[in-house]
Amino acid sequence: MAAVFAGEVDRLLQRGALPGEIHNALLGFGLPKGLLMIEDLLPVDVLADIKADRRSRAAQTIASGEIIERVLFPLINEGAHILAEVGTLLPSDIDLLWQYGHAWPRQMGGPMLYVDKVGAAHIVGQLNLFSAECPDALSLRPAALLVELAEGDAASPIGRTAGRTEVRSRPSIDHPSEPIGK
């Protein structure tokens, strides 16, 4: 999932977003340092080339909300692929990984809970738009699980879509441990 995140950051840079814009948008969302210190990840000469290239063409400011969607929706999509492929995982497993491994803001729950906040239909719609712009990017093609959610009850939590009845308990997590599987 981190590779998908990094790939989408790279696509935003290619579209003309400055590293600081991406960092500030993600920081505003609540994601802190670490993986998001975009400028720190780039060699100085590469950063200078990006800024010079941006100045040499018409400035294209990418809104903070669009940056968030372009980085997080493919990440969520990858999580949905993983949930469908690995029937023993729960959405909360992925959320915990991102909370503790990548400092996802606890008040946001995690990327899988974020599906319930934003709506699967909106995420699928945006992924389809992004995929049309970049048809070779597999990470932008909506996962079957997200499509099923979007076509059904978009308000349903992602964990209720696959029909498993087993529930595993998790201590100290911010959203229910609802099962997912095949």
Characterization of the model:
The chain is an all-alpha fold. It is 58% helix and 0% strand. The chain starts with a helix and ends in a 31-residue tail after the last helix. The protein has helices at residues 2-15, 19-29, 38-41, 44-56, 64-85, 91-101, 111-118, 120-133, 144-151.
CATH-level-4 superfamily name of the largest domain: N-(1-d-carboxylethyl)-l-norvaline Dehydrogenase, domain 2
**Fraction in helix:** 55-70%
Distance between the termini: 20 Å
Which value, in Å, is the CA radius of gyration?
A: 17 Å
CATH architecture of the largest domain, by name, is Orthogonal Bundle
Please report the total strand number as a whole number.
Answer: 0
**Structural class by SSE content:** mainly alpha
Shape: globular
Low-confidence stretches: 159-182
Please supply descriptive tags for the structure shown above.
9 helices, 182 residues, mainly alpha, N-(1-d-carboxylethyl)-l-norvaline Dehydrogenase, domain 2
Sum this structure up briefly.
By secondary structure, this protein is mainly α. It has nine helices and no strands.
Topology:
Elements lengths: L1 H14 L3 H11 L8 H4 L2 H13 L7 H22 L5 H11 L9 H8 L1 H14 L10 H8 L31
Helix pairs in contact: 1-5, 2-5, 5-7, 5-8, 8-9
